[in-house]
């Protein structure tokens, strides 16, 4: 008994000592939650958490608020020859974290790793790449076979365009160590956390604190508990460690700072007329759309944080097009449209002896809260005489079902900045573009494809009017049903001061933060 008591006492003492040591070690350290280990940080791979790569690897240009392109490793650029030539002036005085200079030679080495490669042909700058000229140590020129739509936007992506030291790759060309030009260098990484410290030779403004710890906490409730307990300082980000609006409200009530950004990702409902005959009728699609209470969805799932959507993209994005007010639910008008389309009777409408039954496929794993949204819509469809069957699937099955069109109705998320508007329009709506992940939001080879192709071929002043024709077609044909603009939610302790939501969901919001010790 005495031995057991002594052992327990020692454990308690060690735990208390560890807590004190942890608190002391946290001085000058920002502790951020991540939902899974950071993964392979090779900027040319597609496995790591984007925001962790953002700490170490920098692009030629950065994507700023409202789509403004800002200098980074390139200080100046000129697009010439109708969009077929890009002249770049590289920043001088930059070194990688291993001391290797960043110059035209190391820049070319990086670009050669992905430009023009089939693996990266989903990017126009890679698809149409022709050649690269080194002018001198700090000037290079890129040549393309055709004008590249949103060229500078593509060069701001997290991957594959960011720069790593040539010494971080082995003689066999395989990625070895994550060494970039960014303000943070990785000092350790395992399945529990990734730890970063200052890159003392960084060319730009250094963060005011010396250390950043990205702590792996897979369970959402455990992340919230860790913030409450003072074990972490910051949670949030759709791709980092998602925070639900309900959790945000609870933390706000508990005295924590909660930052809500309108976001630039849209939740959109897709119609699949290839599987469901009724959906070939625009009147049925419109009836479904105006039969949905978008404000109710915003309240039910997002506690009012999400703005009801009238467009595929919000005005937060460049070239988002003319903004429409979100449809207001109108049961009478929806019912009248169904009557006009020949769907009559109650409680479930029918036509030619067939009931108006549709299946909505959802995946709470892929889109958190989508089951709740589906149940809200299911109840609303019942009021206008549509029997809506909700089928929940896991993340992997959702992708398979979308690709194989095993759904009547389904939810899609647009890609957000910096990929949109062209990323989602091409990947989700152009029939000739191969998309092996999400499938297609809507396609029409005869009517929609020519409009998209014209928009992607446009340059200068012609971009805005040509992509507006794509938006007009989607709107005029009720081809999709935009639901809400998904908010970006972050929560942090009082210790974190000067926090600003990141411009995109792929960035880590470490800049301008000051830690109150």
Explain what you see.
β2 (about 60-65) and β3 form a beta hairpin. With about 525 residues, the protein is α+β, with helices and mostly antiparallel strands. The radius of gyration is 25 Å and the shape is globular. The longest helix is centred in the N-terminal third of the chain and has 24 residues, at about 1-25. It has a domain at about 265-485: Roll (Dipeptide-binding Protein, domain 3), CATH 3.10.105.10. α8 (about 280-290) packs antiparallel against α10 (about 330-340), α13 (about 420-430) runs antiparallel to α14 (about 450-455) and α14 packs antiparallel against α15 (about 465-475). It has 15 helices and 21 strands. Strands 11, 12, 13, 16, 17, 18 and 19 form a seven-stranded mixed β-sheet that branches. Mean pLDDT is about 90; it is low at about 1-25. The protein has helices at about 1-25, 50-55, 105-110, 125, 150-155, 220-230, 245-255, 280-290, 295-300, 330-340, 370-385, 395-405, 420-430, 450-455, 465-475, and strands at about 30-35, 60-65, 70, 75-80, 85-90, 130-135, 140-145, 185-190, 195-200, 210-215, 235, 255-270, 305-310, 350, 355, 355-360, 385-390, 410-415, 480-490, 495, 515.
């Amino acid at each position: 008994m005495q031995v057991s008591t002594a052992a327990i006492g020692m454990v308690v003492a060690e735990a208390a000592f560890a807590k004190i040591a942890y608190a002391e070690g946290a001085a000058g350290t920002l502790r951020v939650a991540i939902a899974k280990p950071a993964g392979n940080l090779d900027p040319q791979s597609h496995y790591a958490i984007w925001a962790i790569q953002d700490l170490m690897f920098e692009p030629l240009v950065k994507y700023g608020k409202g789509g403004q392109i800002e200098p980074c490793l390139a200080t100046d650029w000129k697009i010439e020859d109708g969009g077929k030539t890009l002249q770049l002036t590289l920043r001088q005085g930059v070194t990688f974290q291993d001391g290797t200079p960043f110059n035209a030679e190391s820049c070319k080495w990086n670009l050669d790793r992905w430009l023009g490669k089939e693996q990266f042909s989903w990017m126009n700058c890679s698809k149409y790449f022709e050649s690269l000229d080194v002018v001198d140590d700090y000037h290079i020129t890129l040549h393309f076979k055709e004008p590249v739509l949103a060229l500078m936007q593509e060069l701001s992506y997290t991957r594959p365009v960011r720069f790593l030291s040539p010494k971080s790759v082995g003689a066999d060309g395989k990625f070895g160590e994550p060494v970039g030009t960014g303000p943070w260098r990785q000092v350790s990484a395992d399945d529990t956390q990734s730890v970063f410290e200052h890159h003392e030779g960084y060319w730009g403004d250094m963060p005011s604190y010396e250390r950043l710890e990205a702590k792996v906490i897979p369970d959402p409730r455990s992340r919230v508990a860790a913030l409450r307990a003072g074990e972490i300082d910051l949670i949030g980000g759709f791709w980092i460690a998602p925070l639900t609006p309900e959790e945000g409200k609870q933390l706000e009530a508990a005295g924590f700072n909660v930052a809500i950004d309108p976001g630039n990702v849209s939740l959109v409902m897709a119609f699949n007329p290839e599987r469901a005959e009724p959906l070939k009728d625009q009147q049925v699609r419109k009836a479904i759309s105006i039969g949905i209470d978008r404000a109710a969805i915003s309240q039910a799932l997002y506690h009012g944080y999400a703005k009801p959507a009238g467009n595929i993209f919000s005005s937060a994005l460049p070239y988002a097009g003319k903004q429409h007010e979100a449809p207001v639910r109108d049961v009478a008008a929806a019912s009248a449209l169904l009557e006009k389309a020949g769907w009559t009777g109650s409680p479930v409408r029918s036509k030619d002896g067939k009931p108006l039954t549709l299946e909505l496929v959802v995946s709470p794993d892929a889109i958190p809260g989508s089951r709740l949204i589906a149940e809200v819509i299911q109840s609303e469809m019942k009021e206008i005489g549509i029997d809506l069957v909700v089928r929940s699937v896991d993340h992997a099955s959702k992708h398979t079902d979308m690709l194989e069109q095993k759904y009547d109705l389904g939810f899609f998320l647009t890609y957000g900045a910096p990929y949109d508007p062209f990323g989602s329009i091409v990947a989700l709506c152009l029939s000739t573009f191969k998309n092996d992940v999400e499938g297609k939001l809507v396609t029409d080879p005869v009517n929609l494809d020519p409009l998209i192709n014209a928009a992607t071929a446009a340059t200068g002043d012609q971009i805005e009017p040509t992509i507006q024709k794509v938006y007009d077609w989607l709107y005029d044909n009720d081809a999709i049903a935009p639901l809400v603009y998904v908010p970006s939610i972050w929560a942090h302790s009082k210790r974190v001061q000067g926090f600003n939501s990141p411009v995109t969901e792929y960035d880590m919001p470490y800049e301008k933060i000051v830690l109150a010790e």
